[in-house]
Amino acid sequence: MIAIEGIHKAFGANHVLRGVTFTVEAGEVVCLIGPSGSGKSTVLRCINGLERADSGSIRVAGQELGDATLPAIRRSVAMVFQRFNLFPHRTVLENVVEGPVHVLKEPRAEAEARGRDLLARVGMGDRADEFPMRLSGGQQQRVGIARALAMRPQAVLFDEPTSALDPERVGEVLQVMRSLAEEGMTMIVVTHEIAFAREVADRAIFMDGGTVVEQGAARAMLTDPQEPRTRLFLDRVL
Ligand code: ADP
Ligand code: MG
Questions:
Q1: What is the pTM of this model?
Q2: N or C: which end of the chain has fewer CB within 10 A?
């Protein structure tokens, strides 16, 4: 579903990605872990075209990312951010139907019906007409996930979706992600929630200094990493 090969990215003199290569199969859940500044967010942003890699190739569902394919790929790969980025002056439901109505050109009634279904799926069915400000961080993030799903994505990229939440709100968001994984969604999840990664992810990728240091089956790698740098990182975050 996603194949990235040898991507490099520099911001000025800061060579952030130094030849990153990995693939994600359809229906696979891959956790991307690594220290702050290792380039995890930049990888996700390159995959959905928010940043342009300097070299290397990115393919999504068989299409190579480039000027011509960027709009379609950006639509088919949804992103869920650490900060939920909901529109504050629009209701929960309006936030969810914005993309389907304006980008996918779905009839509003149809988009709203599906939006309500998606909100129910993330446990927010009774809050459709609320404004985001009146919701907890965990509830806003669940709306953020519903909004991502409303675009009918082929894959969802999560960038530290629980890092901004109060600890008691983390579980409800992980639960939504777990059920999404069980339904077969293709997901890349940047997270420091190692227990979640071990349990839910098929594969784990450890990045440091802009390169993939180690990757493997999530449970094995996150329990018994082979690379000293991975081990050091896991010892620090666990
Ligand atoms: P991570 O998500 O692993 O913490 P990032 O991909 O956010 O790492 O950042 C990697 C490096 O790239 C950092 O040094 C960061 O300062 C730099 N960086 C990221 N985005 C930009 C940008 N838009 N402009 C300049 N530097 C950036
Ligand atoms: Mg990041």
A1: 0.96
A2: C
